[in-house]
Amino acid sequence: MRIVLIGPPGAGKGTQAKRLTERLQVPHLSTGDMLREAMRQGTEAGHQAEPFMKTGRLVPDQLVHQLVIERVARADCAGGYLLDGFPRTAAQANMLDKMLAERKTPLDLAVQIHVPKEILLERLAGRGRQDDDELVIVKRLEQYDELTEPMAAYYQGRGTLREIDGLGSPDEVFARIEAELNGVRA
């Protein structure tokens, strides 16, 4: 199963992605993790991404798209995968759809986790990651609203979007996601 997980920073995507990938036995492809690893390793992609990530701006589409293309071509993705952090824009969603169409492996589902902004700010402030200082958090949430919401609308128009309430315990949120998965598989 090929799934895109959508939600603002702090919505619990990482927690839910871990559960989903264990349940479905597919790899978790986090573009944020891929970009941070590229920065740690000092790769060309890492050098290009670093100024964007340190200031809370989105990394250019082409750079992220290239990382994703390389990653989904690996053998462990043949049975499916969960994309987390890509696509973030309608343009990226369109690029992904074209790539998947060329491979004859369409996206099965886009899951969007909704959490109120005040809760997101509380969660992110407690995370302590280097890219989670207050100004960066606010910038990332603004960009999410501007760019990612239209991307979710793109998937809504294609009939693949499922919207999930992200409040409650991780178990409660996962149960909601699982119910949507079961509906798609039925």
Description:
This is Adenylate kinase. AMP binds at residues 31, 36, 57-59, 85-88, 92, 129, 140. Keywords: ATP-binding, Cytoplasm, Kinase, Nucleotide biosynthesis, Nucleotide-binding, Transferase. Its EC number is 2.7.4.3. It holds the Pfam family ADK. This protein has one domain (2-29, 80-185): Rossmann fold. It is an alpha/beta fold and 186 residues long. α1 crosses α8 (170-185) and α5 (90-102) crosses α7. The longest helix has 25 residues, at 134-158. Helix content is 59%, strand content 12%. It has a 5-stranded parallel β-sheet, sandwiched between helices. The protein has helices at 13-24, 31-41, 44-54, 61-72, 90-102, 117-125, 134-158, 170-185, and strands at 2-6, 28-30, 81-84, 109-114, 161-165. The protein is built from 8 helices and 5 strands, in the order βαβαααβαβααβα.
